[in-house]
Amino acid sequence: MRRADREILAPSQIADVLRDCSVVRIAYADVQGLTIVPINFAYDYDLAQFEDPEREVTPAEFGDLALYMHSAHEGRKLDAIAAAGNALQVAFEMDCDEHLYMGRTPCTASSGFRSIVGTGVASVVEDVNEKSRIMSLLMKQRMNMPNVEFTPAQVKAVTVWKVVSRDFAGKWHPVPHGM
After folding, report:
1. CB-based contacts of 146: which residues, under 8 Å, 6+ apart?
2. Confidence (pTM)
3. Which among 101, 30, 59, 72 has a CA at the least distance from the CA of 161?
4. Inter-residue contact 145 to 139 (CB < 8 Å)
5. CA dist list (Å): 65 to 22, 43, 49, 94
6. Helix and strand tally (H, E) in the chain?
7. 97: left (phi over 0), alpha (psi -120 to 50) or beta
8. pLDDT averaged over the chain?
9. Distance set, CA 168 to CA 43, 63, 116, 143, 145 (Å)
10. In the structure, what pLDDT confidence band is assigned to residue 167 with cuts at 50, 70 and 90?
11. Are 122 and 162 in contact (CB under 8 A)?
12. What is the DSSP letter of 177?
């Protein structure tokens, strides 16, 4: 990262960004070319894997991150995942806390934000129990509705897919005091 002073290195801060972002953008290439899809998501990122989640580590030590999405049974992204043998290479980005601010001159205007960018592999989740768990996680994390249970028909009505990543980094650009 060019601006090492803005790099997020504590796993607990990565977890905070995941919690506070509501949309992830998934980019991939398919037979039609490059595309990017903004989509709501849930995630698994286990802070228990760290002896001290507040202690800074290198991004290579962040461990596994799983992002979960749901969609209709057909469409461009699902066609791309299928064409890739259920292992589509993707890039992703999420950001939150954007705040534009003016500097001393127009050329020094900037914005504050927190973000995570990375790469991973997208695949469709086939296991019915795992799909149900992920759908409940989506409701808990994005709708603040814990303990939602789904009927088998509801689980069958959507496709659940995930992106698993071991290659991601976080960035924090705070707004200067007084802005």
Report:
1. 139, 140
2. 0.91
3. 72
4. yes
5. 16, 7, 12, 13
6. 4, 8
7. left
8. 92
9. 14, 9, 7, 25, 28
10. very high
11. yes
12. T
DSSP 175: P
Check if the beta carbon of residue 145 is closer than 8 Å to that of residue 136: no
**Contact by Cβ (8 Å): 113, 176:** no
In whole angstroms, how large is the CA radius of gyration of the chain? 18
* φ, ψ dihedrals at 129, nearest 5°: -65, -40
Cα separation, 159 vs 71, whole angstroms: 5
Query: Diameter of the chain by CA atoms?
Result: 59
DSSP string, 72-135: -S-SHHHHHHHHTTS-EEEEEEEEEEEEEE--SSGGG-EEEEEEEEEEEEEEEE--HHHHHHHH
